[in-house]
Write a structure and sequence with these properties.
Layout: H1 2-8, E1 11-12, H2 13-20, H3 24-36, E2 40-42, H4 45-52, H5 66-73, E3 80-83, E4 90-91, E5 97-98, H6 101-116, E6 118-119, H7 134-146, E7 151-153, E8 163-165, H8 167-178, E9 185-189, E10 213-217, E11 220-226, E12 229-232, H9 238-249, H10 256-261
Antiparallel strand pairs: 1-3, 2-3, 4-5, 6-8, 7-8, 9-10, 10-11, 11-12
Helix pairs in contact: 6-7
Length: 262
């Protein structure tokens, strides 16, 4: 399959099946493995949705919905599949191959800044183990600060070490300090990056699973739903507890994919 894509470029699923002589299920399994390895990509998210949906669960819920479901989740409608093109290593002044490690670390630092707004060493505890060590990110963050692209300072109380923030994040934090308290309940999945309980924020750690929930009010975590049980993180009045529990277990309207997977 890889050889076929190398020689013919982007191809539709049916073209790959016909050219390789493999079974459709074999082609599907091979594409899934190549996607996981970061070697192949699709024209659209439909391909990823199809690979995420087990074959036995792609059947339409009703006959009347067959056309719409197939269009959404059929791997045949995922567009073309192609090999991921990786940038060729550049030549240094000496003529030796040079891997752009600095650019990679800067990209990671930029991703963390856009995800959290403020970055410091404790945040790495929630991230993947393959990320570069804090000392490497720190060199890049200091360089970005020197260029005036980000700000350095003390933005989060109780955290030691250097902290860096996007300029727009600094403005938002100032606005929030001046804003009156908000009574709104905000319920988030525990898999959300904002689930910082037990790492940055005080309290017992809530496992980052999609079925677990964390409830916030005015930026403070007040309750968590772990394995179907409510855990109270703040003391509330009986009326507030009823409201909080209702907001905690209330489900937002999910995507068509999630509804279909159920």
């Amino acid at each position: 399959m890889v050889e076929h894509l190398q020689h013919h470029g982007a191809c539709f699923f049916d073209e790959i099946v016909e050219a390789t002589g493999m079974l459709r299920t074999q082609v599907e399994d091979a594409l899934a493995e190549l996607v996981v390895l970061g070697l192949v990509h699709s024209d659209s998210f439909a391909g990823l949705r199809a690979l995420l949906t087990p074959s036995d669960r792609r059947k339409p819920l009703t006959k009347g919905k067959r056309r719409r479901r197939t269009a959404l989740f059929g791997i045949e409608d995922a567009g073309r599949w192609a090999l991921v093109r990786r940038p060729a290593p550049r030549l240094a002044a000496t003529g030796a191959l040079y891997e752009p490690e600095h650019e990679i670390v800067e990209h990671i630092a930029d991703t963390l800044l856009r995800r959290y707004g403020v970055v410091f060493w404790r945040l790495l505890e929630r991230e993947a183990a393959w990320l570069p060590p804090w000392r490497e990110l720190l060199r890049v963050l200091r360089r970005l600060e020197a260029r005036g692209e980000i700000r350095g300072g003390r933005f989060v109380a109780g955290i030691t070490g250097e902290q860096f923030a996007l300029p727009e994040a600094v403005g938002l934090m100032r606005e929030m300090r001046r804003a009156p308290p908000s009574p709104a309940w905000i319920s988030l999945s525990a898999a959300d990056p904002l689930n910082l309980i037990g790492s940055i924020m005080p309290g017992p750690k809530v496992p980052a699973l999609t079925n677990n929930r964390v409830l916030y009010r005015d930026g403070v975590a007040v309750a968590a739903l772990v394995a179907g049980e409510t855990q109270w993180l703040q003391e509330l009045e009986p009326r507030e507890m009823r409201e909080a529990e209702s907001a905690l277990v209330k489900r937002q309207a999910g995507s068509p994919l999630l509804a279909y997977l159920r």
